[in-house]
């Protein structure tokens, strides 16, 4: 038995799967994480086997789109760049190549960003796949889905409905592109004509545990990615609020803004969380913190 984790995203998306993989290894179950090379030193220092996936998170995103998303707080603008079909096609190929070469893998666990590709990868590889969605108190933990689908519903319904919305806008074009790629080295199936199993039959697990949620102390200093900006007027025009402008104009110190896909706004003790962030950060860094549904 060996468990493979396929994870895309920032450090807040990767960290929970590092925690899960470490626990599996502690219990004697081998685990491997497939992620972008940026995270390789960190993952390997934790004693976990690492396999490189295409892309570099901090370079993949268009700078102009990132700037627009940051000034408006509209994370939807980043979806098309995040779900770049050429890069995801290469990602599928890399996952299949690894599974072809490592016959010990008995289960592949997909993070939320790539779960929609799992039925296709299962169809081509024959290896069982499942999806894990990280939730805290039954709230979606990823900032992007929260912005796409801001309503909080119980039992993981927010994530399920978000995925339905994403399918037609984001997932469908990616799937169409990937279907037309050459996978003849893995299977003789004609993917263009193949009828893939519906995503709903894929096992989905909702992990609700404070023990695997991202904490500031979980990351080494060399993992400098992640974070979104969500200004007070994020649903309005492109102008910053006067308070935000004054804050940014006050000195030259680096500013860490928001918490990206971390569950900072979902913590039971939000202020203790912020104190921990500050404690593990350089003294020169200032913070803008957005907490959803908080005064």
Automatic annotation (TrEMBL):
<protein>
    <submittedName>
        <fullName>UDP-Glycosyltransferase/glycogen phosphorylase</fullName>
    </submittedName>
</protein>
<feature type="domain" description="Glycosyltransferase family 28 N-terminal">
    <location>
        <begin position="3"/>
        <end position="112"/>
    </location>
</feature>
<dbReference type="InterPro" id="IPR004276">
    <property type="entry name" value="GlycoTrans_28_N"/>
</dbReference>
<keyword id="KW-0808">Transferase</keyword>
<dbReference type="GO" id="GO:0016758">
    <property type="term" value="F:hexosyltransferase activity"/>
</dbReference>
<dbReference type="Pfam" id="PF03033">
    <property type="entry name" value="Glyco_transf_28"/>
</dbReference>
<dbReference type="GO" id="GO:0005975">
    <property type="term" value="P:carbohydrate metabolic process"/>
</dbReference>
<dbReference type="InterPro" id="IPR050426">
    <property type="entry name" value="Glycosyltransferase_28"/>
</dbReference>
């Amino acid at each position: 038995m060996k468990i493979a984790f396929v994870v895309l995203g920032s450090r807040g998306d990767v960290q929970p799967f590092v925690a899960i993989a470490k626990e599996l290894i502690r219990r004697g179950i081998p685990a491997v994480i497939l992620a972008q090379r940026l995270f390789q030193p960190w993952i390997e220092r934790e004693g976990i086997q690492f396999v490189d996936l295409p892309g570099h998170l901090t370079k993949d995103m268009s700078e102009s789109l990132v700037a627009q998303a940051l000034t408006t707080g509209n994370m939807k603008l980043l979806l098309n760049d995040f779900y770049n079909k050429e890069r995801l096609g290469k990602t599928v190929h890399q996952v299949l190549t690894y599974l072809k070469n490592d016959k010990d893998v008995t289960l592949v666990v997909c993070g939320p960003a790539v779960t929609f590709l799992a039925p296709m990868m299962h169809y081509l590889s024959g290896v069982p796949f499942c999806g894990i969605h990280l939730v805290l108190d039954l709230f979606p933990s990823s900032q992007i889905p929260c912005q796409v689908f801001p309503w909080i519903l119980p039992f993981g319904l927010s994530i399920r409905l978000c995925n339905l919305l994403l399918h037609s806008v984001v997932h469908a074009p990616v799937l169409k592109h990937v279907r037309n790629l050459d996978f003849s080295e893995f299977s003789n199936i004609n993917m263009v004509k193949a009828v893939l199993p519906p995503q709903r039959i894929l096992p989905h697990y909702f992990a609700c545990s404070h023990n695997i949620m991202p904490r500031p102390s979980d990351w080494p200093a060399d993992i400098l990615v992640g974070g979104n900006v969500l200004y007070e007027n994020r649903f309005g025009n492109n102008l910053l609020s006067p308070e935000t402008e004054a804050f940014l104009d006050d000195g030259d110190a680096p500013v860490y803004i928001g918490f990206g896909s971390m569950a900072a706004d979902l913590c039971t003790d939000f202020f203790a969380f912020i104190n921990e962030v500050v404690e593990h950060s350089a003294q020169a860094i200032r913070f803008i913190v957005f907490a959803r549904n908080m005064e």
